TrEMBL record:
It is found in: Cell inner membrane. It holds the Pfam family DctM. Part of the tripartite ATP-independent periplasmic (TRAP) transport system. The lineage of its organism: Bacteria, Pseudomonadati, Pseudomonadota, Alphaproteobacteria, Hyphomicrobiales. InterPro entries: DctM (IPR010656), TRAP_DctM-Dct_fused (IPR011853). It comes from Candidatus Filomicrobium marinum. It is a multi-pass membrane protein. This is Putative TRAP transporter, 4TM/12TM fusion protein. GO terms for molecular function: transmembrane transporter activity. The chain crosses the membrane at residues 12-31, 37-58, 70-90, 105-123, 130-150, 170-192, 216-240, 272-290, 297-316, 336-356, 363-380, 400-418, 430-454, 460-478, 485-507, 527-545, 552-575, 595-617.
Length: 648
């Protein structure tokens, strides 16, 4: 009987094979493209399935998981055998599809079944259910009435499309992104933990905490953003960095709900940060048919604005939390100085090679080599152990191939929506209410995007939004790049949208806080960020970095001012506690920015910017007054201590 140790050894051997194969394919093309993609799909099924079996075989696994081991083993064996068969006869399939044999049909069916079962086990019933229903619709759509009725093709044609026979379609639709682009980049992200980079950010947090009450929040934002833009998933990023960052924030006086909100909102924004942007940026490039570097450049200002929103919210959150004080914890400065270069240099090479338009796999290959080499050049006490490296590589590989599983699953769904035209009909049915009104279309698009994303991973949500909603925004006159960023932005936000809010659920498991308390804190931090996509739709040159232009620059300044006023109003502090009337007055900032977007009257934005400048000066004055009140007061060449109280 297979025990925990034997299953784990088999999983580790498969992970080692996956890493070696993906590195080797960068150096030398072992075989053709479709063979490569089927082999990668086999690695996805093997590693993800064996990881589940390893988890289920642990001593603390539930009885239900133990009962499900043998059915999962059967699914894996059948799915891998079918994938191997399709891999071996790729050349024949290219010639004879869609006139496939009965054996080909059975093999394709087994691959589809294995993908859907694993998607259900890893990513939940919502995505798996959508994929399963889409296959039924592909086969029996001719039985439906109305606009969604279409003439179903033969079963052989359906299977050849869905199983990727003869081309990168169906289950292979997104595998090129996973195999060519994502695997090594996400492996790099996993090794950032294995080489103690994440621990370094914790030390940076201690250093910031010694000079600022919100230092631990800022450190958590930096760590989550740096790791999250590589992992490409809010939930995965919370699971990776959350145990360190959330625990640190709670230990230093932040509530569990607030700590969870800082982590999950930072993880949301990490998917916008170039040059990597997780999986979403590469999907945008594929949908637009442009080089990825153009998408990364377009993301620079929206990402900066989102991260600024989180930093401003963290500042006011710290000011509004009395128990969060400065700390004199010992900081391992030498550890920071020895560890930071391995991150900066390897990450800098990754960014540079992507900017020079080398492939993402090639850039990640050299970044990985530098990260490992520089990590072992540190003094002995700061070098990672082999156990730490393997743990990081294991996490990165499993995360990468779990995203590959998403790509295989949504490939089935995307193929059905495109081939049948159901995606167009669904979007037209919902968006027809907007007519020719761009503002109403954007509002409906926002709501639709958040609804589509409920319970779905960000890549799957964006892939559906790109088919259902984005074409109609383009028809309304929204530029293509802005329309795709608009949809992607709200696909990201669906991770904190109740009642599902999968990102918040992941954070509450670590923080121990209540679900709705964390949702409220996340909304306080991020709600004003909803204005960012509307701003770059009205001023699309924001996405044309560095050719932004004066009007777009002014719009960004107005938005930054609105964000600042929002933070002060929501948290009720501005160097001192604010009265209710003051908080209501400050909410005029976001309202006036909305008016500016609607009218584009410069005077409106100027008022918002001027009010924000006054706010900054008032806050600075209040903080200076506090410092003077608790320290000696200078009077010419003399100084006296200000008394703590004065009696009449």
């Amino acid at each position: 009987m297979l025990g925990y140790t034997s299953i784990r050894l088999l999983r580790d051997a498969t992970i080692a094979l996956a890493i070696a194969y993906q590195l080797a394919i960068i150096i030398y093309p072992i075989h053709g493209a479709l063979e490569f993609y089927y082999f990668h799909l086999g690695l996805v099924l093997a590693v993800v399935g064996l990881s589940l079996l390893t988890e289920w075989s642990a001593s603390d696994a539930s009885p239900k998981a133990r009962l499900g081991r043998w059915p999962l083993i059967a699914v894996l064996i059948v799915g891998l055998a079918a994938t191997a068969y399709l891999h071996l006869i790729v050349g024949e399939l290219e010639l004879r599809q869609p006139f496939i044999t009965q054996t080909d049909f059975i093999a394709g069916f087994c691959v589809l079944a294995a993908v859907i079962v694993l998607v259900y086990l890893v990513w939940g019933s919502v995505l798996a259910g959508l994929i399963f229903l889409s296959t039924l619709y592909f086969a029996f759509g001719d039985l439906l009435p109305g606009a969604f009725n279409y003439e179903s093709p033969s079963s052989d044609v359906i299977m050849s499309y869905l199983a990727g026979m003869g081309g990168a379609r169906g289950v292979l639709w997104g595998i090129p992104v996973s195999a060519d682009t994502l695997f090594l980049i996400i492996l790099f992200g996993g090794l950032l933990k294995g080489t103690r980079i994440l621990d370094m950010f914790n030390e940076v947090g201690k250093l910031l905490l010694s000079v600022s009450r919100g230092g631990i929040c800022y450190s958590s934002i930096l760590a989550s953003s740096a790791i999250g833009m590589v992992t490409g998933q809010a939930v995965a990023n919370v699971a990776l960095s959350g145990p360190v960052t959330i625990t640190s924030m709670k230990q230093r006086g932040l509530s569990g709900a607030a700590a969870g909100a800082v982590e999950v909102v930072s993880s949301l924004g990490s998917q916008l940060i170039p040059p990597i942007m997780g999986l979403g940026g590469f999907l945008i490039a594929v949908n637009l048919g442009v080089p990825y570097v153009e998408v990364a450049a377009a993301a620079i200002i929206p990402a900066f604005l989102f991260v600024l929103t989180v930093f401003i919210a963290a500042y006011f959150l710290a000011e509004a939390t009395p128990g969060l004080e400065r700390s004199n914890e010992p900081v391992d400065v030498a550890g920071i100085l020895w560890t930071l270069p391995s991150f900066l240099i390897s990450f800098g090479v990754l960014v540079t090679l992507l900017y020079l338009r080398y492939s993402a796999g090639y850039a990640a290959f050299w970044a990985l080599g530098l990260l490992l080499t520089l990590s072992f050049l540190r003094p002995a006490q700061y070098r990672p152990s082999w156990t730490e490296l393997w743990a990081g590589a294991t996490y990165g590989t499993i995360s990468a191939l779990q995203l590959g599983l998403i790509m295989a699953g949504i490939g089935i769904l995307v193929q059905v929506l495109i081939t049948t035209g159901a995606g167009f009909e669904l979007g037209r049915t919902i968006m027809v209410a907007a007519g020719d009104n761009v503002a109403l279309g954007l509002l409906l698009g926002m709501v639709l995007s958040m609804l589509i994303g409920l319970g779905l991973p960000t890549p799957a949500a964006y892939a559906l939004i790109a088919i259902v909603m984005i074409p109609f925004l383009i028809d309304l006159g929204v530029p293509a790049m802005a329309a795709h960023f608009f949809g992607f932005y709200f696909a990201i936000f669906s991770a904190v949208t109740p009642p599902v809010a999968v990102g918040v659920l992941a954070a509450t498991r670590i923080s121990g806080a209540g679900f709705y308390a964390t949702v409220r804190e996340a909304a306080r931090m991020s709600l004003v960020a909803i204005l960012i996509p509307y701003t770059f739709v009205v001023f699309p040159s924001i996405l044309a970095f560095p050719d932004v232009g004066l009007r777009a620059t002014f719009a960004c300044l107005s938005l930054m001012a609105a964000i600042l006023m929002w933070g002060a109003a929501i948290y009720g502090v501005m160097g001192r506690p604010l009265r209710r009337i003051e908080r209501l007055a400050l909410l005029l900032g976001p309202a006036l920015h909305c008016a500016y977007l609607a009218t584009q009257w410069v005077l409106v934005a100027a008022i918002v910017i001027a009010a924000a400048i006054v706010l900054i000066l008032r806050t600075w004055q209040e903080q200076r007054r506090k410092e003077v009140g608790s320290s000696p007061v200078a009077l010419g060449p003399y100084s006296i201590s200000k008394p703590s109280s004065l009696k009449p």
